[in-house]
Amino acid sequence: MNSEFDSYRLSDEHEALREAVRDLAEKDIAPHAAEVDEEARYPVEARTALVKAGFHAITIPEEYGGEGADELAGCIVIEEVARVCASSSLIPGVNGLGLTPILLSASPELKKQVFPSIASGESMISYALSEREAGSDAASMKTRARRDGDEWVLDGTKCWITNAGESDWYTVMAVTDPEKKASGISAFVVHKDDPGFEVGPKERKLGIHGSPTREIYFQGCRIPEDRIIGAEGTGFKTALATLDHTRPTIGAQAVGIAQGALDVAIDYVKERSQFGKKIAEFQGLQFMLADMAMKVEAARQLVYVATSRAERGEKDLGFISSAAKCLASDTAMSVTTDAVQLLGGAGYTRDFPVERMMRDAKITQIYEGTNQIQRMVMARSLLK
């Protein structure tokens, strides 16, 4: 077998992790998922259960109090939680996103300052790159950071910040030298208690209702000079490297959502009768289920390959990471839509979870780079 595919084969430890996370998700997260969505409240039960089990930020190295798991393990956790509740899967997912720039580029001293409180579950971390006028064109950001003695002073606004208000730490990209454009962007770590930092109101969203999305504001926000991640001017490079590692995690979330919807659809067609027989006996519906399952498995395999290659630090990860995120999120949207169709009128009601899964799936095609951006990344890789 091609070694590239052989390399991500799940070990006994990975299989045991999947079982453990699935058991936790079924017992402690699934029972609250509908209520979390309906009330648009933060899934405190999920956070408590994930922290207690050590699954909330599994890739933090052991030397900083973490589990020291690999990136494939991180994807498995996200996938299994998303299978029952996409909002809850953003607890490990966004911790992983916020942590990755620090893992990749920060000094050991900064890691020691930030990681232990996240590893213990006392704190969480979010990632702040986007702005209202700098979404897909992130390099055009306006948030500024300037030196003032032994401090940095940040001014500006970041938007679409997942779990803002729940997180204590924020990885923030800001311009330190406007004349250098992308090479004048630096990365910082901001704490919620830093003077001049504020959190805005929650966005009213189509899906992932249990995960708050807010703007965050920096108004003369002062942070110590040692909270810069890597060298000045390397922030955008770090942001792009981060996405190579974290786009597969969005793929994992999408796979989990799709798998959850497929599971519900299979159970339903086995029970529902029309024309004197179970609708699972109708070949048209059997073909729908076969196509759904085929897409989910293809997406899962691509996500696992991408995250394993990122773990090894291979070069030119752009294509495989974008492909994994793109295929998986398109699959999630397709499979959840088909699941609603298979359940018919029941699928369109909130009595079944597939309508929630369909709404939740949509964001996976948008955040961490829209799927149009993913296709641009892939095309550039092919044509360079």
Q: Uncertain spans, ≥5 residues at pLDDT below 50? A: 1-7
Question: Structural class of the helices, strands and pairings?
Answer: alpha+beta
* Spatial order of strands in the largest sheet: 1-4-5-8
**Count of helices?**
11
Give the radius of gyration. Answer: 21 Å
Count of strand segments: 10
| Overall pLDDT level | 96
Oligomer: single chain
Measured between the Cα atoms of the first and last residue, the distance is: 28 Å
What's the helix-strand series?
A: HHHHHHEEEEEEEEHEEHHHH
Shape: globular
- Major pleated sheet: 4 strands, mixed
Strand content: 15-25%
Write the topology of this structure.
Blueprint: H1 3-6, H2 12-39, H3 44-53, H4 71-82, H5 86-105, H6 108-119, E1 125-128, E2 144-148, E3 151-162, E4 169-175, E5 185-191, E6 197-202, E7 213-224, E8 228-229, H7 235-271, E9 273-274, E10 277-278, H8 283-311, H9 318-343, H10 354-363, H11 371-383
Parallel strand pairs: 1-4
Antiparallel strand pairs: 2-3, 3-7, 4-5, 5-8, 6-7, 9-10
